[in-house]
Amino acid sequence: MKKCLNKFTISFDSENPEHLLAMNILNSMERSKADYIAKAIGFYQKNIESNPNSIPENDVNELNHTNDSTNVNQLFNSLKGFRD
């Protein structure tokens, strides 16, 4: 059994566009990373996992085709409001 249930170590794949997006978001934050991740997981489970068709098709395509830092940064900037 895990010693500390409230601690995690995460490694991101710098070749994966979705991971690059997550890295950019988390590295731009000073604090509250755990709150942000918890809210994102809760939002995903409530809204996306239960209704995968709720994401507009153009957003899915943008996520699937984001493969350079410029596109990742543009996508990151479009998602900044999620933190608020």
Helix vs. strand class: mainly alpha
| Shape call | globular
Beta-strand segment tally: 0
Largest sheet properties:
none
Mean pLDDT: 75
> Ends: how far apart?
36 Å
Instruction: Work out the strand percent.
Output: under 5%
DSSP helix count?
4
Q: Describe it for me?
A:
The chain is an all-alpha fold. Helices cover 57% and strands 0% of the residues. α1 crosses α4. The longest helix has 17 residues. The radius of gyration is 14 Å and the shape is globular. The mean pLDDT is 75.
Structure characteristics:
84 residues; mainly alpha; 4 helices; 57% helix
SSE topology sketch:
Elements: H1 17-28, H2 33-49, H3 57-64, H4 69-79
Task: Offer a concise description of the structure.
The protein is mainly α and 84 residues long.
